[in-house]
Amino acid sequence: MTARPGVPPTATDVRAVEELLRMLAKGQRALQMYLPNNPVYQRTLQQVTESFAPVWDATGRLVLEIQEEQITWEETAVFRQTNKAEGLAWELYKDGLRRLTFVPGVETEEIVRFLRVVNQARMLPTDATDDLLTLLWEQEFVLISYTFVEVLGDGIEFIQDSSARDLHAPDSGRGGIDARQEVAAGRGAPAGSADARGGGYGVVDLDEFDATPYFLDEAEIRLIRSELDEEYHRDIRQAAIDALLDVLESQREPAVRREAIALLEEILPMQLAVGGFRAVARILRELRLIAARAPGLDEELHLAVLSFEDQLSTPEFVEQLFRALADHSARATDEDVGEVLRELKATALPVVLAHLGRIVDPTARRVLESSVDALARNHPDALAALIGSGPEDALVPAIALAARLGLAQLVPVIIDHLRTGDEPLRLAAVRALGELGTSTAVTAIETALDDPERAVRQGALTLLIARGGSGGLLHRLEAMLFAGTERAWERSERRAIFEAYGAMAGAPAVPKLKELLEPRGVFRRRVSADVRASALFGLAKVGNLAARSVVEQCTTDKEPVVRSAANTALREWPA
């Protein structure tokens, strides 16, 4: 039932129906633009279902009259559209629907099928044999009925109701004959006559026509097959985005363009969420072209179009991008990811570098490094500012990036972190300075030999030895080894430092090392066994006869550690 005859509906009831139709239009767009597992898709369909409850409180049977530009209920307009060529009302009206009826329960399942059918009909080509009414008929709705018109010719319209569709449907080999017999019976034809058998005037008998088994040549068949394959594999979401971009470029009405921009603002994060990186990059490129060539863009719309690039580089969008990268179910190709990363601006560097420091997947890291390198190369000032006072989680990858790009002008700010940063930052600074290799950088690495952390000291020593030493390395090693103060080094580190000294100093190192190994006077404290053992390995790096003689004398030392070191050094003695 509907509202009582002669009694106009209340304003509350009208608002309930208006809200339902607004949600149906929104649901139609969601079904077209999003996949079923998308949160926006699921939330919109839930809202559509919930919108029916207040309508059923107002009426037990919702009857909607379909017009070209609006939909009415109880002679009250409940849905209007500003653009006749688009919108739910026009989509239904142009294919012949004039009345649509919903009954309770339709919201559970049939309403979703109905909206899908409307979208399917909307995408049909102009020369398609199907239309909206055919698609609705195939669904066999139980809780949805409709009245439509058919054009018989000369502009004459014949009104039909969906409840009569069974009269026109063939039924397992006998429905077509029954339909002909009913037409003949309506004319008063006797049973068994030609009219009753379906051969009368006005009824088409397919037997009267000769079938042509091969009416298409091979080329035409291939063309149709390729067109069908293309249609089945067409990306509906991309087609919708392209249509939206076309509207933004071609429609001069500011309100229409603002609506298109608002829809794109919703699409952009959703495309990132489902891994549509190529679509996002394409949207940004097209928007740049639109901003340059679209006619009639006022200043506000021009800025709104260009603002999408800035939005993509905000921390919120970049974080969403990396969440999508971490979701392997929505993982795009490396090329697609690179397309989006190349669209980022310098403001995205801190967040991108912070994630770069946490990514362990070698493939993703390679793609990300390539894009970050290009971004930093184009904006070296932004990288310098980031290294100078950026967030802590971005500093280590930022310093590594500066070294990878060979930005020697950033050596002073990297040295500042070597002096004041925490251990990971100091270690990153040592490695970066080693790659940059300027004289200032090497001098700074030498100072790192006195760092309180072993990892930093070892990293500095390894880099200096790999370079073949430096101007001040030998003097610094002598000061560290022979200053009279024994340092709290571990055995492996102490050995590495003595070996570095022996390799760099050569023959002049023998007397100094021998002095550590020989017994001292009564009032002079003998150096520890670990120091003496390490000195033996330093002599092995000298490798001459004088050094070997000293080592051989220690094979009978009373300290087991020293004897073992002497024998090991002799076994490993360079040939």
What can you see in these coordinates?
The chain is of the alpha+beta class. The chain folds into five domains: 11-169, no CATH class; 174-201, no CATH class; 231-344; 346-471, Leucine-rich Repeat Variant (Alpha Horseshoe); 480-575, Leucine-rich Repeat Variant, CATH 1.25.10. The chain has 28 helices and six strands. The chain has helices spanning 11-33, 39-58, 88-93, 110-122, 132-139, 175-186, 195-199, 218-232, 236-250, 254-273, 277-293, 299-312, 315-326, 334-341, 349-356, 362-378, 380-389, 392-404, 411-420, 423-436, 439-447, 454-466, 473-482, 491-505, 509-517, 529-542, 545-553, 560-571; strands at residues 62-66, 70-73, 76-80, 97-102, 144-153, 156-161. The longest helix has 23 residues, at 11-33.
Largest sheet geometry: 6 strands, antiparallel
Radius of gyration from CA coordinates = 41 Å
Side by side, the strands of the main sheet go 3-2-1-4-5-6
How many domain regions? 5
Described by the principal axes of the CA atoms, the overall outline is elongated
Q: DSSP helix count? A: 28
Spatial separation of the terminal alpha carbons: 107 Å
Q: Report the average pLDDT across residues.
A: 79
